[in-house]
Design a protein that fits this description.
Beta-Lactamase, five-stranded antiparallel sheet, 21% strand
Length: 153
Protein backbone atom coordinates (compact mmCIF):
# COMPACT_ATOMS: atom_id res chain seq x y z
CA UNK A 1 0.00 0.00 0.00
CA UNK A 2 1.47 3.36 -0.90
CA UNK A 3 2.26 5.73 1.95
CA UNK A 4 -0.72 7.99 1.30
CA UNK A 5 -3.25 5.18 0.78
CA UNK A 6 -5.23 4.34 3.90
CA UNK A 7 -7.95 1.77 4.46
CA UNK A 8 -10.92 3.72 5.76
CA UNK A 9 -13.59 1.01 6.03
CA UNK A 10 -14.21 -2.72 5.89
CA UNK A 11 -17.56 -4.29 5.06
CA UNK A 12 -18.56 -7.94 4.93
CA UNK A 13 -21.70 -9.02 3.10
CA UNK A 14 -23.35 -12.42 3.06
CA UNK A 15 -24.12 -14.43 -0.06
CA UNK A 16 -27.44 -12.59 -0.39
CA UNK A 17 -25.79 -9.15 -0.36
CA UNK A 18 -26.86 -8.36 3.21
CA UNK A 19 -24.47 -6.31 5.32
CA UNK A 20 -23.19 -8.47 8.19
CA UNK A 21 -20.18 -6.46 9.39
CA UNK A 22 -18.99 -2.84 9.26
CA UNK A 23 -15.83 -1.30 10.67
CA UNK A 24 -14.57 2.24 10.03
CA UNK A 25 -10.88 2.84 10.70
CA UNK A 26 -10.20 6.31 9.38
CA UNK A 27 -11.96 9.20 7.69
CA UNK A 28 -10.56 12.05 5.62
CA UNK A 29 -13.52 14.35 6.01
CA UNK A 30 -12.93 17.59 7.87
CA UNK A 31 -15.83 17.00 10.27
CA UNK A 32 -14.78 13.37 11.03
CA UNK A 33 -18.23 12.02 10.13
CA UNK A 34 -18.89 8.91 8.09
CA UNK A 35 -21.93 8.77 5.80
CA UNK A 36 -24.88 7.08 7.49
CA UNK A 37 -25.32 3.33 7.23
CA UNK A 38 -28.07 3.63 4.60
CA UNK A 39 -25.52 5.03 2.14
CA UNK A 40 -23.26 2.03 2.72
CA UNK A 41 -26.14 -0.43 2.45
CA UNK A 42 -27.13 1.11 -0.89
CA UNK A 43 -23.53 0.96 -2.14
CA UNK A 44 -23.11 -2.66 -1.07
CA UNK A 45 -26.42 -3.83 -2.53
CA UNK A 46 -25.48 -2.13 -5.81
CA UNK A 47 -22.12 -3.90 -5.76
CA UNK A 48 -23.88 -7.21 -5.08
CA UNK A 49 -26.08 -6.64 -8.14
CA UNK A 50 -23.04 -5.72 -10.25
CA UNK A 51 -21.32 -8.94 -9.18
CA UNK A 52 -24.37 -10.96 -10.23
CA UNK A 53 -24.48 -9.21 -13.62
CA UNK A 54 -20.74 -9.70 -14.11
CA UNK A 55 -21.19 -13.39 -13.40
CA UNK A 56 -23.63 -13.63 -16.30
CA UNK A 57 -21.19 -12.15 -18.81
CA UNK A 58 -17.94 -13.57 -17.40
CA UNK A 59 -16.02 -15.84 -19.78
CA UNK A 60 -15.67 -18.40 -16.99
CA UNK A 61 -18.79 -18.40 -14.78
CA UNK A 62 -17.04 -20.64 -12.23
CA UNK A 63 -14.48 -17.89 -11.54
CA UNK A 64 -16.09 -15.91 -8.73
CA UNK A 65 -13.64 -12.95 -8.86
CA UNK A 66 -15.36 -10.88 -11.56
CA UNK A 67 -14.94 -7.42 -10.21
CA UNK A 68 -12.00 -6.52 -7.98
CA UNK A 69 -11.58 -2.74 -7.89
CA UNK A 70 -13.81 0.24 -8.48
CA UNK A 71 -11.91 3.52 -8.77
CA UNK A 72 -13.59 6.86 -8.06
CA UNK A 73 -11.19 9.80 -7.98
CA UNK A 74 -8.64 8.95 -5.33
CA UNK A 75 -10.88 6.38 -3.61
CA UNK A 76 -10.58 2.71 -4.49
CA UNK A 77 -13.21 0.15 -3.48
CA UNK A 78 -11.68 -3.33 -3.43
CA UNK A 79 -13.81 -6.46 -3.31
CA UNK A 80 -13.00 -10.08 -2.65
CA UNK A 81 -15.70 -12.71 -3.02
CA UNK A 82 -15.24 -16.17 -1.53
CA UNK A 83 -16.46 -19.41 -3.09
CA UNK A 84 -19.38 -19.35 -0.62
CA UNK A 85 -20.50 -15.89 -1.77
CA UNK A 86 -19.31 -13.90 1.25
CA UNK A 87 -17.84 -10.59 0.05
CA UNK A 88 -15.17 -8.52 1.75
CA UNK A 89 -15.13 -4.88 0.69
CA UNK A 90 -12.48 -2.39 1.72
CA UNK A 91 -12.53 1.31 0.96
CA UNK A 92 -9.06 2.76 0.37
CA UNK A 93 -8.67 6.52 0.36
CA UNK A 94 -5.78 8.62 -0.90
CA UNK A 95 -5.08 6.57 -4.00
CA UNK A 96 -4.08 9.60 -6.07
CA UNK A 97 -3.92 8.48 -9.69
CA UNK A 98 -3.45 4.84 -8.71
CA UNK A 99 -5.98 2.29 -9.89
CA UNK A 100 -4.76 -0.50 -7.64
CA UNK A 101 -3.80 -1.21 -4.05
CA UNK A 102 -0.37 -2.82 -3.64
CA UNK A 103 -0.53 -6.17 -1.82
CA UNK A 104 -4.31 -6.14 -2.18
CA UNK A 105 -4.58 -9.92 -2.60
CA UNK A 106 -2.51 -10.58 0.52
CA UNK A 107 -4.56 -8.10 2.54
CA UNK A 108 -7.84 -9.70 1.44
CA UNK A 109 -6.44 -13.16 2.19
CA UNK A 110 -5.38 -12.04 5.67
CA UNK A 111 -8.84 -10.59 6.38
CA UNK A 112 -10.51 -13.75 5.06
CA UNK A 113 -8.30 -15.96 7.25
CA UNK A 114 -9.22 -13.88 10.32
CA UNK A 115 -12.90 -14.21 9.36
CA UNK A 116 -12.63 -17.99 9.12
CA UNK A 117 -10.65 -18.31 12.34
CA UNK A 118 -12.68 -15.98 14.57
CA UNK A 119 -16.15 -15.83 13.01
CA UNK A 120 -16.87 -19.04 11.09
CA UNK A 121 -15.27 -21.23 13.78
CA UNK A 122 -17.15 -19.39 16.54
CA UNK A 123 -19.75 -21.89 17.82
CA UNK A 124 -22.20 -19.06 18.55
CA UNK A 125 -22.07 -17.56 15.06
CA UNK A 126 -25.03 -18.23 12.76
CA UNK A 127 -24.19 -18.23 9.03
CA UNK A 128 -25.18 -15.10 7.10
CA UNK A 129 -26.10 -13.16 10.27
CA UNK A 130 -24.46 -9.96 11.51
CA UNK A 131 -21.53 -10.60 13.82
CA UNK A 132 -20.58 -7.05 14.81
CA UNK A 133 -21.02 -7.61 18.54
CA UNK A 134 -20.31 -11.29 19.12
CA UNK A 135 -16.88 -11.81 17.51
CA UNK A 136 -14.68 -9.38 19.42
CA UNK A 137 -11.48 -11.26 18.63
CA UNK A 138 -12.10 -10.79 14.89
CA UNK A 139 -12.73 -7.06 15.39
CA UNK A 140 -9.55 -6.67 17.46
CA UNK A 141 -7.36 -8.63 15.04
CA UNK A 142 -8.67 -7.01 11.87
CA UNK A 143 -8.30 -3.58 13.49
CA UNK A 144 -4.67 -4.34 14.30
CA UNK A 145 -4.05 -5.65 10.77
CA UNK A 146 -5.50 -2.50 9.18
CA UNK A 147 -3.75 -0.15 11.61
CA UNK A 148 -0.44 -1.86 10.78
CA UNK A 149 -1.15 -1.41 7.05
CA UNK A 150 -2.19 2.21 7.57
CA UNK A 151 0.82 2.92 9.76
CA UNK A 152 -1.37 4.11 12.62
CA UNK A 153 -0.69 1.46 15.26
Amino acid sequence: MSSQQKISSLFVTNKFGGLIFTKHFYTRSSNNQQPNENVYMTLLSTMHSLHLMAQQIAPNPMDYQYMENIVMGDTIICTHQTATGVKFVIVVEGGGNSTDVPHRDQLMTDIYELYVEYVVKNPFYVDDHPFQNNCKEFVDRVTKLVEDRNGTS
